[in-house]
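Action item from last week, closing it out:
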Amino acid sequence: MFSCRSINIVVLVCLISTFLSIYGVVSSVDYGTALTKSLLYYDAQRSGKLPSDQRVKWRGDSALNDGSDANIDLAGGYYDAGDNVKFGFPMAFTITMLAWSTIDFSSKLTAKKEMGHALSAIKWGTDYLIKAHPAPDVLYGELGDGDSDHACWMRPEDMTTPRTSFKIDDQHPGSDLAGETAAAFAASSIAFRASDASYSNQLLNHAKQLFDYGSKHQGVYQSSIPEGGKFYSSSGFEDELLWAAAWLHRATNEQSYLDFLSGTGNTGGTRTEFSWDDKYIGAQVLAAKLVLEGNAENSGKMAEFKRQAEQFICSCAQKGNNNVKKTPRGLLWFQPWNNLQYTTTAAFIAIVYSNYLSDADASIECPTGTLQSADLVDLARSQVDYILGSNPKKMSYMVGFGKSYPTQVHHRGSSIVSIKKDPTPVSCKDGLTIWFNKNQPNPNVLDGAVVGGPDANDQYTDTRSNFQSAEPATVTVAPLVGVLAFLA
């Protein structure tokens, strides 16, 4: 016979179980599997001639003649999201964040046997960026035309939309595009330093050339490539130059790059997001790292950088003066279009800064409380857990992870039958009528992709036409790689 105490314990367990079920809380998250899938996603986004070790088998070669209109080989690189355009601005940011993930969490990635895949994902991007930078003052920043591409729904393998090449040069500036690409090269040079010194040096040389070009030929890139600005318009170039200088200093330890940082007239102030467009927080955190390590004075502009980085973190942790909005169930909410790209960058900043604080035995004094290193880990974990299924929908917003995830992802290659299964060409309009409008799961699972995510009220509609929420992007997953590596 049960005692009253035993009955009370059973009731308590049932209540807890009911609570966890209602609120979508998962007891244990397989971060290792999520990490593996996050890197697998980049195989699916590849453009160009696929390698023999290609892991996503439903994809095929595509856009092999890119650059032919300019008499240059520009095959390779990544499609940015659910379309078939190669936008250099977000691609470079993707590579920078993949490299940062690899640098700061190298031991974790190695332990999980994912370092090779991480470096492969970076190299697929940097190999293309090397091609796109054929001269010190020339950088190709876009392949394909967004308007015509978005008017069609075609597989990349047999697309017929224009593959126009767009560039910046000494007569057509683009400091933001050049700065972000310089950052990608510099960060990647660090990532490859231990395994391929020659390649690392090559990347660093490209980084220095682009930083020099971007500093001397100032202006936003959409003034030279308006086609790119229609889809990825830059709000300014000062942040990219600071970001590039920070990475070049970390790669070279040369004083000139530190002088560029400390001599800036604009440290960015307290930012509200970290993204493909706004790199101030990234530069602020890298500067703060130098201060915490004792490699830069905690005064002047460097102290400003550190203070502003920590104010952003305080806002994410709900201990600031102007806190980041959260959904009713706790997801950091920045904006309606692809919100999760901002959530993953915020989680990444929290994780890397937790390491920097721990190494320095330091904490953050926020307007309404103190944050320790462990608090930042908890913050990042809460956001990743939400993304992977601890949410009211009980749905993982990473495709292919868990029992429930988005099946009608806004992605051309994923939503049309694989060319390996049916090589019959799919025309521009047939893709729309037959595949885009088909109310069925995508025939190809885009493992590791992270969709835009739920709305401000934790709601999500799994439909292909819901492009604001259902389209994945390379910029969303790159910072998540580092966070998952830490948590796995």
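Closing note: The first strand starts at residue 86 and ends at 87.
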